[in-house]
Specification:
Elements: E1 7-12, E2 15-20, H1 32-52, H2 59-66, H3 70-76, H4 80-105, H5 112-133, H6 135-149, H7 163-170, H8 180-201, H9 209-224
Length: about 230
């Protein structure tokens, strides 16, 4: 449970863990007009970030660029970090949909290995891109995401992974393990945790071709190694 707006406290065996939460919007829009305003702010913020860089994105630049009054911006985004956090949520959602669409669009001649490689290359490239946009917020979000994955803290919203199930369904005839539920769980944990570890500890590995190949071979072996009779 949040202690306040900025930290979460959790305990295991009398040890306390204090985690700084990624900044978030003050409230969620409900009416169509407010939804459109928030969407416009996120689009404007994204264009400034991608075109001019993180340092250029200030509340005054955002107001000037979007035509939205500063008071209206603060109504939803109390800090610039909270706006960037919302933009990153959109990045993640877009990446998931892109990967799922790409899995379905693979040609009939494609293999499970091809699908895994595409998934990882898209995901690692996205993580690298977010690091370039705002490295501090990316790392903070990665740490928080790991605590959510480990069930140490509870998120306000939980994104149920659809990528691994889509991959397994697309290449069902090539998945040879008997316990698909277990294999799917292990694959999901690997695809979730290992890229975050790279972002936090070894960001220089994210775009290396051999990183993608090594991870692809590992996941491919997990899903295609037949259980002994």
């Amino acid at each position: 449970m949040p202690d306040n707006e900025g930290t979460v406290a959790s305990s295991r065996s009398n040890d306390s863990i204090l985690v700084e939460l990624p900044a978030r919007p003050r409230k969620q829009p409900k009416q169509a007009r407010s939804v459109a305003l928030v969407d416009a702010l996120k689009i404007a913020g994204r264009e400034i970030l991608e075109g001019e860089g993180r340092e250029a994105l200030s509340i005054y630049r955002l107001s000037d660029y979007s035509g939205v009054a500063i008071s209206s911006i603060y109504e939803y985004f109390p800090t610039i970090d909270s706006l960037i956090g919302a933009i990153f949520e959109d990045y993640r959602a877009d990446t998931r949909e892109q990967v799922i669409a790409s899995i379905h669009a693979l040609p009939d001649t494609a293999s499970l290995y091809d699908g895994i490689e595409m998934l990882l290359r898209t995901g690692l490239t996205a993580l690298h891109r977010w690091l370039q946009v705002d490295s501090e917020l990316s790392i903070k979000s990665a740490y928080y995401g790991e605590l959510v994955r480990l069930d140490i803290v509870k998120p306000e919203r939980f994104w149920i992974s659809r990528v691994i199930p889509a991959l397994v369904q697309r290449f069902s005839d090539q998945v040879l393990v008997r316990d698909r539920e277990k294999a799917g769980f292990l694959a999901y944990q690997a695809v979730t945790a290992l890229p975050r570890a790279l972002m936090i500890e070894k960001p220089q590995y994210l775009l290396d071709d051999d990183t993608v190949r090594l991870l692809t071979r590992m996941l491919h072996a997990l899903l295609t190694t037949a259980d002994p009779e």
